[in-house]
Design a protein that fits this description.
homotetramer, mainly beta, 8-stranded antiparallel sheet
Chain lengths: 121, 121, 121, 121
Amino acid sequence: MKPIGKTRWAIAEGYIPATSSGPAPQMTSHETVCILNAGDEDADVRITVFYADKEPADSYRVCVPARRTRHIRFNDLRPAISVGTDFASVVEASVPIVVQHTRLDSRQAENALLSTIAYAE
Amino acid sequence: MKPIGKTRWAIAEGYIPATSSGPAPQMTSHETVCILNAGDEDADVRITVFYADKEPADSYRVCVPARRTRHIRFNDLRPAISVGTDFASVVEASVPIVVQHTRLDSRQAENALLSTIAYAE
Amino acid sequence: MKPIGKTRWAIAEGYIPATSSGPAPQMTSHETVCILNAGDEDADVRITVFYADKEPADSYRVCVPARRTRHIRFNDLRPAISVGTDFASVVEASVPIVVQHTRLDSRQAENALLSTIAYAE
Amino acid sequence: MKPIGKTRWAIAEGYIPATSSGPAPQMTSHETVCILNAGDEDADVRITVFYADKEPADSYRVCVPARRTRHIRFNDLRPAISVGTDFASVVEASVPIVVQHTRLDSRQAENALLSTIAYAE
């Protein structure tokens, strides 16, 4: 399939709720970046995390193989992003990808969800 | 009416929650692709589903007639997409369409919703 | 202020939940189109509603005055859109506007929300 | 990092729920504009708020420093925006930024969330 997407994306929202209700890992409060690489070349992806009051973190590197999707929880990145902290991110790739941002918040007894396609250019 | 939209769309997020609360089919946890064909020609639509750890599924074909909308639950596609599995999709059409992605998650007692216009090019 | 936006927008998702919990009208399940007219000329807006199995409804006309926003509940349009029915919409305006789609679903005891900027061209 | 984004954004939806459940400030019902300035120059940002039935408010000024994100609650802007009132906003910046809109609604016992990337031009 012909690749689809862009190589530079941004998500201005970011926040990992500090607490959770319900069985882990499914119902653990999480912040996710969903990446689709529909093309025939592996994508070398770099995620840079920005904060309100300090310099951007060293960036994270992930590979999204050709014709695959990866839904990456910010919770799982190491070094870890602090919970309960405002952040934002820029996602850059070696080939066109599509990026969507989703949060599951289970701080209260019933979970809440949000999602949006990220900003591309 | 003059057609509106594009012929190639992508949704990087995809996940059918494995359980539900409340009366089916209305409150069954579902993942939906909403397609609008505002123009005067029927749209021949192909949905390709991508996974984290295997090759894309054979694609699904649907028709969205002229001046109609179809809200298609990924739950209803056959062969079936496994529940509780990360996926993503590319939607291609023979004429311009508009694509929006919605999930209703009723794993817990009260439902949660997310929605976003898909990425177009 | 210089106008911002486009004159043609589409929302592929549309569904007015048939039931509600909590005090009306605030917590009544609703589907809303939010329109911003940031410019100095009134916007003459036409909303055309599309269905799954019948021809588009006669379109609805609304005015969004210069430098005003209007959040219009699809529930309030007359002739009425049936509840519990899939629909989609195209929003056309005489001057540039910005369109966002929001739903509050209170079928269950606790409400759920979704929102997305519409598709523009 | 090379800047990403645009200098003019709009959010057509805006509503601060009048009541809340759960511990403040975390679970207080709020409406947020998330701004990312990934570039190397501080962003001088102006937020203009539009209403349904009166002229736009005097605009608010905020600074988003280089390589920082700020998640600004509309609840915290002064002079205050009335709760339970429809509004919309235009966000303009001196350098490219990315803007995302999020609401946490805790009027009922369990919270609901919505989010979308704003409209850019």
